[in-house]
Amino acid sequence: MEDTNIDSGNKNSRIAAKELTLSMGPQHPATHGVLRLVLDLDGETIVKCTPYVGYLHRGVEKLAENRNYMQVLPLTDRLDYISSMSNNLGYCVAVEKLFGIEVPERTEYIRTIVGEMSRIANHLLWLATHALDVGAMTVFLYCFREREAILDLFERLCGARLTVTYPRIGGLKNDVDSKWLQDVYAFTTEFPMRIEQYETLINKNRIWLQRTKGIGVISAQEAINWGMSGPALRGSGVPYDVRKVTRYGVYDKVKWEVCVGKNGDVYDRYRVRMDEFRQSNNIIRQCIDQIPEGPIMADAPKYTLPAKDKVLTDMEHLIHHFVLITKGPQTAPEGELYVATEVPKGELGFFFVSDGTGKPYRMRVRSPSFVHVSALPTLCEGELIADIIANIGSIDIVLGECDR
Amino acid sequence: MEPLEIVNRLKNKYLNEIADVTEFRDQVFVSVNRQRISDICRFLHDDPEIYMDYLVDLCGVDYPDRQHRYEVVYNLYSVKHKHRLMLKALIPADNPSVDSVVPIWAGANWHEREACDMYGIIFNGHPDLRRILMPDDWEGYPLRKDYPLKGPADTEYKGFEELKDLHSHDSEWNIR
């Protein structure tokens, strides 16, 4: 009925464009996982964007309530599987603060090194897929070459490439050898040249600039109000970095700067991450220069595993190891605590409610991706449908972490 | 500002609302009655010297044995002043509801939806209170302590109906 009215009625009036509802995802290569967006479109302009998440919900928080503190560690690998090392670190730092454990200095250095390597590996995958989404294929291949190098180093370190579970509560699985450190150092010597290579590919690329500049603008105040964190917040010019405001690792002993953008658009978020490559690279180099000798496990036998070589030769250590592995820590200090660390995607926080038993009464994971997806409609409403790809890329989400 | 000083300022203004103050590892938790949570949050957000502009996290906790069964934990941080305060709203079991803080912090939107999804806490005035991680037709609230870990007993997975048909078809054609 209405259609005929348009045809036969006032012929001078513009034919009203019909609003189209488009369901994008959950199986869509540019949504970086299983994110589903329902887009109300007026022509190509997004009128309303509604994200649907939960397709990867595995109930990590519920599982954690039924496992002891040691058994929860592998679950954190599966949150943000792109940079599992950072997630493990975040969990260990939080549990150590709850238990009141001080880890040895060498461990802090190694943790900082692997944490920053994980940041580089994450940003490499981010740059690769983001560039691919926006239309630059070559960057993808270059980035994966370097990411492979880091994953190979991880494999040599702990035997796993993706879900590493390398840190332990109160220390690390194993110490690093000098050959490994030398190879990491060699990587960091070469890496700045690689960053320049990526930049020559896209920094002045007209398509890249048109697809990213002025797209998905969010002001500093709005970004804070939405609870954004990490490079997505710093792209708007807010110099907030958890590594600077809370003490963990050796970030206070090395020289580095918080990278901030200015305009809060996709391009500035890209620039922040490119600068973070250089900062992380420098942090790793300084850590390798300064790293002291010493033990890698904290002296807190109630919570931490004994040294592996002693377990194989000494009865008491074997029993100690056996009890901790099979039953886990039996007690924990009673209290509530929120501890955050800066993972590549933003602020990863663990909130524990401990009732004194060996299992967390409540473990809450504050994941940056969850917050960033919630802010996605603000970024892309009123823009073109093609820009949503650039926007999803620029907030760097992983749905495993978002859905938990 | 030290967290305890923020608590003092809060006490000056809302003394009757504050139920408890606890401290653990330098973090201060303030438990407040749920009725005026939105005023308290507005005060913490707007006061220029406290200025909690960043809602880091919001989550529910379930204590089945307590008088107030649920707690909603507000993790507040000030990017400008670099101080943190944990605020807890006490919520009874018979009427699990509390005012939404979405008008103050836009980022509370999904956190509140999640708390509603997982604990069944109703946030009054929330713009779009739906389930978020669980399917829309899910029954029960998974993170409540009385919810079994393996899910409700009567919902055992029976496999896809479509696949059952497919297998019966296979036998007809003597594939196996």
Characterise the protein shown here.
The complex is a heterodimer of chains A (404) and B (176). In chain A, 50% of the residues lie in helices and 12% in strands. A three-stranded antiparallel β-sheet of chain A has the order 1-2-3. Chain A has a three-stranded antiparallel β-sheet with strand order 6-7-8. A two-stranded antiparallel sheet of chain A has the order 4-5. Chain A has one domain (60-403): Orthogonal Bundle (Cytochrome-c3 Hydrogenase, chain B). With 404 residues, chain A is mainly alpha-helical. Helices cover 26% and strands 26% of the residues of chain B. Chain B has a single domain (3-144), classed as NADH:ubiquinone oxidoreductase Nqo5 subunit (Beta Polymerase, domain 2, 2-Layer Sandwich). In chain B, strand 4 (70-77) and strand 5 (84-91) form a beta hairpin. The longest helix of chain B is centred in the first third of the chain and has 12 residues, at 3-14. Chain B is elongated. With 176 residues, chain B is an alpha/beta fold. In chain B, strands 1-2-5-4-3 form a five-stranded mixed β-sheet, covered by helices on one side. Chain B has a two-stranded parallel ribbon with strand order 6-7. Chain B is built from four helices and seven strands. Classes of the chains: A mainly alpha (404), B alpha/beta (176). The A-B interface holds A 53-54, 57, 59, 61-63, 66, 97-98, 100, 221-222, 224-228, 238, 240, 245, 335-338, 340, 347, 349, 351, 353, 361-362, 364, 366, 370-371, 373-375, 378, 403-404 and B 22, 24-25, 27, 29, 53-57, 59, 61-62, 73, 75, 79, 82, 84, 86, 105-110, 114, 118, 131-135, 142-143, 147, 149.
